[in-house]
Design a protein that fits this description.
The protein is α/β, with parallel strands linked by helices and 212 residues long. The chain has one domain: 3-Layer(aba) Sandwich (Rossmann fold). The protein contains five helices and nine strands; from the N terminus they run ββαβαβαββαββαβ. The strands form two sheets. The chain has a seven-stranded mixed beta sheet with strand order 5-4-3-6-7-9-8, sandwiched between helices. Strand 3, helix 2 and strand 4 form a beta-alpha-beta unit. Helix 1 runs parallel beside helix 2.
Length: 212
Amino acid sequence: MRTELLPVPLAPEISLHLAGSDTGLFDTAGGEFRSDVPPPFWAFVWAGGQALARYVLDHPETVAGRHVLDVACGSGVAAIAAARAGAASVRAVDLDPAAVEAAQRNAAANDVPVQVRAADVTEAGPADVILAGDVFYTGSVAEHMSAALRRSAASGALILVGDPGRGYFPNRLFVRKAEYSVPVPAALEEAETLVTGVWEMRNTMLSSNNKL
């Protein structure tokens, strides 16, 4: 997919290699979903990632001097914000190798150190702070991500999630820390802005009988 280096709308301190504003998620596949090729989520800066980046930049004490992990990182916007805000180290993981390449390129474009590799959240290892933007977009993904994040929270990690009200977001597990009106491409979201929250996961494990 063709991209250009553009400032992030809600966090213009950061620039990313992004698809144009009139480009849709499935344009490179003729407008159709293909199960054999992951959609290029990494070519867009999603509302949840933008909100997380803005929050971290405005509250550097959240990550300063701490070891940070960005899961399902996509473009890497949240990881880059953490590095800019003074994190001791920043790692990022994504299942899509193309996203890993994009996040590495974006970190280099912003002259910040971010270690990126292809991995699932369960393989990423521990961190002081875990960032997750727009990760509750299907039921199965939400269940898998919630379980992994809850284990990390129970181990003492600070979990911050950016979510614009996706249908599978388990808000009962979180406390809202901030809210933003985030500019987004209409071709992507069918809206020009999305009200997006930054949420902190409660640090107590709920009963295993509880479901999303």
